[in-house]
Amino acid sequence: MAFTRLATIVSLALGLIERATCTNGKTAGNAVCCPLFDAVDFLQTNLFDGGECGEEAHSALRLTFHDAIEFSIHGGMGGGADGSILVFNATELQFHANRGIDDITSRQFPVFQALNEQSGLSGGDFVHLAGAVGTANCPGAPRLEFMLGRLAPVAPAPDLTIPEPTDTVTAILARFADAGFSPEEVIVLLSSHTIAAADDIDTTIPGTPFDSTVNTFDTQIFLEVLLKGTLFPGNDPQPGEITSPIAGEMLLQSDFLLSQDSRTACFLAVHDNQERMTTQFKAAMAKLQTLGQNTASLVDCSDVIPVPAPFPGPIKFPPSFSKADLQIACTQEAFPSLATVAGPAPTLAPVPAS
């Protein structure tokens, strides 16, 4: 009874905390977040083509990973989610794992400079705000958290801190563990590939998507990564690439190996569980985007992140495909019954560059 009364008192006290009303009429949990509403509008207009889930949104999410994962819980590496990949791009773009990042940074850097001049937004806050806003433009995505207050990066991160698609599963899991992530969290973060495309693995076919619903944040990626690979018509596979039986789609060697390895295979078994995928991804991203930061000194400004459009699902097999076309390594969980989209075998178009 005493506990019940205490819980009621705490709830009432929390209810009395007034939200800040910003000059634009919007409200935030903390007044310091108010200027970010204008920053979000600026990003949508100047980076995301008015709010599209296109190449820039995909790239912004990718950049958050390449920035933050350059960190070790044991010390001696980069500063984590500090924006060093943008601020010190002349150095970090030379890293092999950052091939293709130059397009992203060249597009983002002038937008960052403008927001830095207007509101003093640090490089780390910019990279991770842009990643959260860009992801919110994709239907089905979770509304990612955003914490404000990262200090300016002091130095570039060292090389060889970013996992690559040619790495072994053991090497990938070890690098993630060094940054503080479990094997399950590795697969959770792999969810980002549902809105990703490859520009630099095979430069002859830029913008090649990793699943057939590249502009929707969904579990389609975990279905299609299990497809038994064949060759792209007219293209030889490149290092790190396992060709997909869907024309115009690319499977990464690392993704496929993770889907088949006993340490990780069953973590991909979220095929038709959109809620589980997005909930886990949101939690893993909250951890990733504050790596190396003193979270006690950050302010929760998640209120400023747009609410994504709902998942239009359910996922389905692409036309002409079925369970018989899958290479399923996890036998502990029953594979769901999924319909197949009607029509001839698809040929996916590349994701257009902005």
Automatic annotation (TrEMBL):
Cofactor: heme b; Ca(2+)
A GO BP entry: response to reactive oxygen species
Gene Ontology MF annotations: heme binding; metal ion binding; peroxidase activity
PROSITE patterns noted in UniProt: PEROXIDASE_1, PEROXIDASE_2, PEROXIDASE_4
Residues forming the catalytic site: H66
Compartmental location: Secreted
Any GO CC annotation of this UniProt entry: extracellular region
Disulfide bonds, paired cysteine numbers: C22-C34, C33-C301, C53-C138, C266-C330
Cofactor note: Binds 1 heme b (iron(II)-protoporphyrin IX) group per subunit. Binds 2 calcium ions per subunit.
Highest taxon, organism lineage: Eukaryota
Signal peptide start-end: 1-22
Chain sites annotated for binding Ca(2+) 2: T194, D211, T213, D218
Presence of the UniProt keyword Metal-binding in the record: yes
Record-annotated site: Transition state stabilizer: R62
List of residues binding Ca(2+) 1: D67, G80, D82, S84
Binding-site residues for heme b, renumbered to this chain: H193
Family classification: Belongs to the peroxidase family. Ligninase subfamily.
PANTHER family: CATALASE-PEROXIDASE, THYLAKOID LUMENAL 29 KDA PROTEIN, CHLOROPLASTIC-RELATED
Protein name as catalogued: Peroxidase
